[in-house]
Amino acid sequence: MKKVNRRKMRDTASHNVWRSYSDMMSGLLLLFVLIMAVCLMQAQRNYTEKLQEQAKQLQTQNALDESKTQIDEQALQLASQQSTLDEQAAALESLQSALAEQAEKLSQKEEDLAASQAKLDEQSQLLAQRDEALAASQEKLDEQTTLMTQQQQKIDQIIGVKADLIASLNEEFVANQINVEIDYQTGAIVLDSSVLFDYNESVLTEAGTAILAQILPVYCKVLLSQEYEPYLAEVIIDGYTDTTGDYITNLDLSQRRAFAVAEYLMNLKDSFLSGEESEILTQKLTANGRSLSNPILDENGQVDMDASRRVEVKFRMKDEEMMAELQQIIEDTQMGEAELQKEQQNAPGA
Questions:
Q1: What span, in angstroms and rounded, lies between the C-alpha atoms of 187 and 169?
Q2: Which of 207, 190, 206 is nearest to 309 (CA)?
Q3: pTM above the 0.70 mark?
Q4: CA–CA separation, 302 and 243 (whole Å)
Q5: Rg of the chain over CA atoms, in angstroms?
Q6: Which three-class secondary structure state does DSSP give residue 225?
Q7: More confident residue, 304 or 3
Q8: What is the Cα–Cα distance from 324 to 276, expressed in whole angstroms?
Q9: Which domains does the chain have, with CATH numbers?
Q10: Which end of the chain is less congested by CB atoms within 10 angstroms, N or C?
């Protein structure tokens, strides 16, 4: 019994050990299961979190890719816009350059226009001045034409007076029975030096003074009369010699002979002229030596020595002065007409 009990007790003890072991193992298994469960749960949670994180990363990557795509598109747009801006900037620069060129051309045109306007104003001023000058020239030409007409009328009158004067001289000489030849062209009378002077002398002979006493009063009285004196310019006494000898010697002799006749006339004038007439004669009388110039030639063209030795008494009318004035007026008029025509040809718009 005791053995059975002991066996039972051993069986029971053995049973209890295995039971305890089984419980322990069960407990360990449960613990392992719990640990595994916890691990699985943790792994599941980690996996879920990782999946979520991957999803988030994928979403973020997608967002980044999308953002990158957008950025690339924006970059392309920016590049396109930059290219457009560059083109617009180039176009703007070209436009600015064109505008600057146009502005420069406009400025040049304005300067050219101003220069043209200044030139036009200058030409207008020149034209006005030329018009004034032309008007003045025309007025001067008209005045000169009028003066020339008046001068010509005076000359014609004096020429007629000169012819009347020569006729009056001839009549007076005839009336006083004085035989003297008068040049009907010049009114000069020629006195033979061989009668007035001895050979190579300048002192008047008695016969010479007698001839001069007859001729000079009649000649001068007519010249200085109220009818002819206003037209008288000069009373002239010229002495001439023949061609023998040298010029200076003959000049001296001819001057002394002309002076001798003039001196005799001055001493004689108060006997036949009034005080006023005497003063006029003093103012208008000249005596000149002509030496051997203007010799008298005979019919064979040879020098007539006797005829060449002479003293000429003559006069000069104012027509010669007026002729010179008329000639000057004609020359001035012709010059004025030429200048007027030239100015008209050179005038703007001509």
A1: 8
A2: 190
A3: no
A4: 11
A5: 74
A6: coil
A7: 304
A8: 28
A9: 149-336 (3.30.1330.60)
A10: N
